[in-house]
Amino acid sequence: MFKRIDRYSLLLIATVVFASFLPCRGTTATILGYATEGAIALLFFLHGAKLSRAAIVQGLTNWRLHLLVLAITFCLFPMFGLAAHALAMPLLAPSLASGLLFLTLLPSTVQSSIAFTSIARGNVPAAVCSASASNLLGILFTPALVALLMGGHGSVSGGEVWTIVFQLLVPFVAGHLSRPLTAGFVERRKAMLSYVDRGSILLVVYTAFSAAVVEGLWTRVPVWQLALVFLFCAVLLAAAMLTTRFVTKRLKFDRADAIAILFCGSKKSLAAGVPMAGVLFSSAEVGAVILPLMIFHQLQLLVCANLAQRYAGTAPREEDVENAVIAS
């Protein structure tokens, strides 16, 4: 299992461990808090700069596919999240139960959705368009869903709407509008910018978990609750993938489109979720709220890597695909 875990996931785990033993406090926490806000703005600026207009236009004619991916991402998943939250509330700490619901409200990943679709020989242009649209709309949809479904928990206030706009949406739009000046630089410096991208997330995770540890996260969350979170995440992923597979069969999507829908609709973005949580939740809550997302993120990578390799074979029979989803 550890051989399949990528280095970045190991870095995320190491960051959590480091924050658990050496959390930032006082003035250091304040300085890192401002740095985190800047990192979040930079992260969304880069996301906007990397998203080409061609990727938005490409594949727009396949409206059935894109509508289904958006419906799975922002309708089906939240329904599963509400059910999981209701079941988890008597068993888990409130922030962990909220984290389960929060992860279901997030947009899809971009890079890994496209990569797995390509490996599985699916419809890559459609995956590019769907995953990009999911992330673009997620900047608006996720805060709205959090306010609608989690407002009773005091997660979002009216004043924070402007925080979301200025810290997430404005940098994203600015990054996209800057493409005439920055597109060439972004394209040439993909490797370097990926370090900025991932480093920003590590900083957000460290400050979030530091605040949570200072507030007594690990004294409130026993090991058995972490195991239960893992189980809930596995069930959420399996339910989403099996339902997606069933719907694509009933709607008679061809194999390439069904693969794109499966990989774009069943995944949730850590890159978007961590900074959004930093804006939407209090510093004391963020560490516990993003813990289910981090577990779900690793699970989806392991399962999707396995499925992509199976799909890459020569046109598997429908029952074999069904068995592959269940086995993964």
From TrEMBL:
Alphabetized InterPro entries for the sequence: Na+/solute_symporter_sf, Put_Na-Bile_cotransptr
Transmembrane parts of this sequence: 68-88, 100-120, 127-149, 161-178, 199-218, 224-247, 259-281
Highest taxon of source: Bacteria
Keyword annotations from UniProtKB, A to Z: Membrane, Transmembrane, Transmembrane helix
A Pfam family that the UniProt record links to this protein: SBF_like
Name of this chain's protein: Bile acid:sodium symporter
